[in-house]
Specification:
Elements (H helix, E strand, L loop, with lengths): L1 E3 L5 H11 L11 E3 L2 H12 L5 H9 L15 H11 L6 H12 L6 H16 L9 H16 L1 H9 L9 H4 L4 H4 L2 H9 L5 H18 L9 H14 L15 H20 L8 E3 L11 E12 L2 E12 L4 E10 L5 H7 L1 H6 L5 E3 L4 E10 L3 H29 L1
Parallel strand pairs: 1-2
Antiparallel strand pairs: 3-4, 4-5, 5-6, 6-8, 7-8
Helix pairs in contact: 1-2, 4-5, 7-8, 7-12, 7-13, 14-17
């Protein structure tokens, strides 16, 4: 007869032990008590409080248990268990990859047999479910296993990644989760720690340790950088893994185009900035909204932003890519406008002469108080054409605006 007492609440487990000790003295009967000592000790403390010290609490067990035996968890051959479990699923693990699987288990569910069994059961389930467009090949197998470890052990982190999956294409989010300072330095970091329910330094350390192993599993080239192919595979597997998750999932039939062009357009802006930087006093930086707040737009924006301080405030210059996901076309635009604290009337007056003389095609929009240019639409995948357009136009326009504002500031 086996009694797994640690499955009861601690107080009830102690009560049952007290009842059992009255009936255990039976000839030819052996009673096996499967007990997590820490759980039942907690029950003793709950029931008797400080009336029983640690020594008396241990004596409580000694009166009931004649032959104690601790399961030798440290002697488990985890590598062999992982290898045999994968073989049972028809998956062979290369010798060089086995250590990665073991590290994932160690930093997530741990080496508890029941927890490992649950992990492999979830893995078995997902291998048996057919989802349109997603096939688990040997290359994606590692990613799926790592994602399940994340899902089962760090559900809040898993949910955060699922809900912000498009940010993986930017390459920064997963790396952010590997660093302790992402959760400790600054108000935003502390907000992230609260959002993920990381309430102590130990919690943060557990998550960052696991995420470093997790990111290494995704990095096939082992160069410290996630390739676009690796990120796309991860997003596919992330969609697939939500079948067994309690969290709100990504639509498994949803369109990946927005995420792909988010990553793709950001790369274009980066390459364009390399070509145009150094032509003006203040450098440009990348501008990119995290989400598209208008459900009617089938577009994704990415751009470069430049602020010029002047006597009446600040004038901003932005160049943008707006991709229409249905037609796969990108509109290229440039926008010159005063920031929210700048005198709009003075902005219009100072740039009026330039607006009348410029030959680029900018139009002044009085309601928005800014100059807008959108004279080029190209196929969304025309990377070199887009880079060339901005690399030619921006180094011409920006110095002209800087010169006007600088001269105005010197006069005042």
């Amino acid at each position: 007869m086996t009694l797994p007492l640690d499955r009861l609440c601690p107080g009830k487990a102690v009560e049952l032990l007290e009842v059992l000790k009255l009936f255990l003295d039976c000839d030819h009967c052996v009673f096996v008590l499967a007990i997590d000592y820490a759980v039942v000790s907690q029950g003793v403390k709950q029931k008797y409080g400080d009336l029983l010290g640690e020594e008396k609490g241990r004596s409580f067990f000694d009166k009931i248990i004649q032959v104690p035996f601790k399961v030798p968890v440290a002697q488990y051959d985890v590598k062999n268990y992982v290898t045999e479990s994968m073989k049972a699923l028809g998956i062979e693990i290369a010798d060089g990859e086995l250590e990665s699987y073991v590290k994932l288990i160690q930093n997530s569910v741990g080496f508890n047999p029941r927890a490992m069994k649950r992990l492999f059961n979830a893995f078995l389930l997902l291998n048996k479910i057919a989802v349109s467009g997603i096939a688990i090949d040997p290359k994606q197998c590692k990613i799926l296993f790592a994602t399940l470890c994340l899902q089962l052990s760090y559900e809040n982190v898993y949910s955060y990644i699922v809900q912000n999956a498009e940010r993986c294409y930017e390459g920064a989010m997963l790396d952010e989760l590997t660093r302790v300072e992402s959760f400790t330095e600054g108000e935003d970091a502390q907000h992230l720690a609260r959002e993920l329910h990381l309430n102590s330094d130990a919690d943060i350390a557990h998550v960052t340790d696991f995420m470093r192993v997790f990111e290494n599993m995704l990095d096939r080239e082992a160069d410290g950088k996630l390739s676009e192919t690796a990120v796309k595979s991860f997003i596919n597997v992330l969609r697939f893994s939500t079948i067994t998750a309690n969290t709100a999932s990504i639509d498994p039939n949803g369109d990946e185009l927005e995420s792909q062009y988010r990553y793709y357009n950001r790369g274009i802006i980066k390459d364009a900035l390399v070509k145009i930087q150094g032509n003006f006093k203040t450098p440009y930086c990348i501008y990119q909204t995290k989400t598209n707040n208008n459900p009617h737009w089938q577009k994704y924006y990415a751009g470069g932003w430049h602020g010029i301080t002047c006597s009446f405030g600040q004038v901003n210059i932005e160049f943008k890519i707006a991709t229409d996901l249905q037609s796969r076309t990108s509109a290229l635009s440039v926008w010159i406008y005063p920031d929210g604290k700048t005198d709009r009337k003075q902005f219009a007056q100072r740039l009026h002469a330039w607006g009348e003389q410029q030959s680029y095609g900018f139009r002044f929009l009085e309601n928005d108080c800014g100059y807008w240019l959108c004279d080029k639409t190209v196929h969304a995948d025309s990377r070199e054409e887009i880079i060339s357009y901005f690399a030619t136009l921006i180094p011409q326009v920006t110095p002209e605006i800087e010169k006007i504002l600088r001269e105005e500031q010197q006069r005042t």
